[in-house]
Write the structure tokens for this entry.
Amino acid sequence: MSLLLLQNWDISSKVSCPRRRAPTCIAFVSEKTTSHRNYLMQQQISVITLGIADLSRSRRFYVEGFGWSPVFENDEIIFYQMNGLMLGTWLGRALEADMQRTGLARPGAFALAHNVASREEVQAVLDRLSRFGGRILRAGDAPPHGGFRGYVADPDDHAWEIAWNPAWPISPEGFVTFRA
Amino acid sequence: MSLLLLQNWDISSKVSCPRRRAPTCIAFVSEKTTSHRNYLMQQQISVITLGIADLSRSRRFYVEGFGWSPVFENDEIIFYQMNGLMLGTWLGRALEADMQRTGLARPGAFALAHNVASREEVQAVLDRLSRFGGRILRAGDAPPHGGFRGYVADPDDHAWEIAWNPAWPISPEGFVTFRA
């Protein structure tokens, strides 16, 4: 467990971080007030929010294509409970307003990956998604680092890699673990 | 458990999907060969890959700012083991080559969120990240839907929401669950 330091704050010897599983503990101690707070910085992503143009068009790709079930939906956002985090598909103008930033571009410089359990599933899932509003960017083939993968863009041009990576185990709950 | 159908494939009554926790089961049965395959479509994201311009600049934000530990790094990519999925930061030109697509734009139409355990942590984490190459997009304040949040862009202009959402529990392992 590592202790990190904020500028203008100091670490007090009185501060001890609670023991939990593998977080980084940041001890904030005000130089002025000598009050202190412990924050546990978890290595954790809570939500991925994709800016979209049309809820029903996006919904078709995720619900009918991937076969996923929304856990919440209203007239501007749909949430899906994923493997220890949430996926949100939100109207782009609402995301821009929340972020206080305009001009969000598509396609953005990122990719999401959905790993599957076998090599043969890669192209089958790509083909399936292409029938529900997706567009194949790269048909399934073998990358230099091993395994098998292809890419499909969702209806809002967000890229999904569909990959078989035999080195990285996927638990029955969908939790993915790195192995070298 | 729902059974979904691929075009040009049919569902056989002989096909039964294994029982696991909450996946959608897709039974693929070839009309021509009568061979069949069962695929379990997990509601799962395996990897988030961010296209970046400079590895060491990005590393500073994630390793020194967030305090996260890489699980793998070479001269073009760094992987972080997150809560049941991987975060990858990969040189943008390599991501474009892998995706067979050029012109990936920043800022893209998406946001990642890192939820914290208390309201007061939101601004503290935003301030901390801004000292390690981040740029505040929105200072912490209360959104209409409750809680508290702000936004910070990483050194490659990818948006992170830092949020306190008391409705969504976070387990000690960092797994986030939706609650209405």
User: Anything to note?
Assistant: The two ends of chain A are 23 Å apart (CA to CA). Chain A has two domains: 2-40, 47-164. Chain A has a mean pLDDT of 85. The longest strand of chain A covers residues 135-141.
